[in-house]
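Worked example 2:
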Amino acid sequence: MFPLEVDELTNEYQTAQLRELDALHHLHPFTDHSSLRADGARVIVRGDGPYIWDSEGNRILDGMAGLWTCSVGYGRKELAEAAYKQMLELPYYNTFFKTTHPAVVLLSRKLAEIAPDNLNQVFYGSSGSESNDTAIRLIRHYWVLKGQPKRRISAVKSRNPEPGGRRNCGQREHNAVRHRESHRCQMPPRRREGVGEERHQPDHWQRGEGKD
């Protein structure tokens, strides 16, 4: 392992070194790593407002907002100060075991004020798939409490009537299959009890092959 050198004029890490270390130690999601390592990753070094800058000095309009997680923009001093204050006071504590804390109480009340009148309680999650899974679990638990445990949700259909359009507990099956195919992962076909082999059909709308 070699040390990272810092440019004496700019006080910044060298792009070539960062790319080499990235290739050695970082697995990127949804990425063909052979081409990534051949070309080298683009190194993003800072952001301000809706823009980001790479290590070559190029300014880029970040239409994805990070990964739709920075929708209020970069460089927001007031957000950094609020996060700093909270990190010093109480960076985290769970609410599993009959506990709570001021931050989660006040945020929950604020979200309830913003939400429609019939939505008054908040369950927190850390991703979209986790939120979908939690919603399905809550629905199942609701029917158990109502004395109807056999009312269960096993899948949610999208607008595509083909089997490939189903979502199983928040997972887009056709996207997962397409990803496995693109990366040559050989996985056995999924089977459903009483149905036999389940065949996945391509989503022509997402591939731009659908008809108006």
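The chain is about 35% helix and 10% strand. The helical segments are 15-25, 33-39, 65-68, 77-89, 102-114, 128-145, 173-182.
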